[in-house]
Amino acid sequence: MRVDVTVNGERRVADDVWEGESLLFLLRERLGLPGSKNACEQGECGSCTVYLDGVPVCSCLVAAGQAHDREVRTVEGLADGERLDPVQEAFIEAGAVQCGFCTPGLVVAAHDLLARVPHPGDPEIREALAGNLCRCTGYEKILDAVRLAASKR
Amino acid sequence: MDFLRPDSLAEALALKAQRPDAVPIAGGTDVMVELNFDHRRPAALLDLTRVEDLRTWDVDGDSVRVGAGVPYTRIIEELGDRLPGLAMASRTVGSPQIRNRGTVGGNLGAASPAGDAHPVLLVADAVVEVASTRGTRRIAATDFYLGVKHNALEPDELITSVRLPAARAPQQFAKVGTRNAMVIAVCSFAVALHPEQRRVGAAVGSAAPTPLRASAAEEFLSGELTATGQWESPRPLLDSVKRRFGELVAEAASPIDDVRGSAAYRKHALSVLARRTLGWAWQDYPGKVA
């Protein structure tokens, strides 16, 4: 089937999409956007988090066909040209990246949190990131990054 | 595989009548896992996310009709005052990403004994509304769960909404898991006070082939509160009453040993959850019905 979807502000069309395929597969394998990561494929790890119509979701749990005529924003769509989003800057500054695999999902989840709650407390940060796993166990630096991004708002 | 994309409920019901083998998909939090892992290859997917009727809630007299496709996040944000028990259970579902997509309709459709919404639906006297091109039916939650992942839905029917009386007295929900997020319940429990009927609702999840009401516990506590006149003038509950209530809740369950916990642990944990949640609910009970 054909899926017609706006990704990062750009209209994209994919043909011969398998009906049981996930939005994550569509983004990575058909639209050339490998920022969203594929790990658990069951909504447990958050590495594939993207915005779907402005709401953060696990793209592995969205059928590609459900994104038809909808708007998707991936981690690739957060930066403004060469200028990184403040959340991305904060992850770099705080050293909140080890292997980097979980980073795109965490950046999107943190980006959403700060858009909703500009100055979150620690419990709010922890709750907002509860669906994102980091197996390098770098959570402290990640929390630092979110606090840093909030402090610069 | 076919991908069916109805824009209205009428169209969705017509498609389900033509294609009873089509698997409904809303948030995808169960269906996509089965597809991703090759556990299921349905002949068709029926995408319900474009059916606006399923994504709304409204107040109808004393009850609230929650569309089957309203995600948990919206139940938490918009219905916490009217449906406190359901909102509480919704807060324990998965993670923010999962709550943004997952729906009560999906919980009912999957009918997993571990679904977080079930115990609350049972104690809050919820009625499940289902529809087909043949018409609509209302099924009490107590009659909806028939077996492990098996519900009362006919092959041509879709779950359209769940209807619950707006809460007029405290409700509580609690579940046990290894951490706060992303946990499938080891066991769960809900309690609701119904002072206008001099009755208590109690139900367990993830501790029997289906979610179920703990009837003996309900009758014991309802009788105790009525006999001692505590609906009108509540006093702190005796420990012996809370303990007996917990024992009867544990007796109602018929759990198994599995990777998430042993049957013995589940029974013990249920008695603790029942005692605690009853304590919280009773603490908040003002002694008259709003």
Automatic annotation (TrEMBL), chain A:
Location of the 2Fe-2S ferredoxin-type domain: 1-78
Superkingdom per UniProt: Bacteria
Statement: the UniProt record of this protein carries the keyword Iron: yes
EC primary class: oxidoreductase
One term of GO molecular function: anaerobic carbon-monoxide dehydrogenase activity
Entry EC number(s): 1.2.7.4
Pfam families assigned to the protein according to its UniProt record, in alphabetical order: Fer2 (PF00111), Fer2_2 (PF01799)
Keywords of the record: 2Fe-2S, Iron, Iron-sulfur, Metal-binding, Oxidoreductase
Claim: Electron transport is one of the keywords in the record: no
Protein name: Carbon-monoxide dehydrogenase small subunit
TrEMBL record, chain B:
All copies of domain FAD-binding PCMH-type, residue ranges: 1-169
Classification of source organism: Bacteria, Bacillati, Actinomycetota, Actinomycetes, Pseudonocardiales
Key words of the record: FAD, Flavoprotein, Oxidoreductase
Protein name (Swiss-Prot/TrEMBL): CO/xanthine dehydrogenase FAD-binding subunit
Organism: Saccharothrix longispora
Top-rank taxon: Bacteria
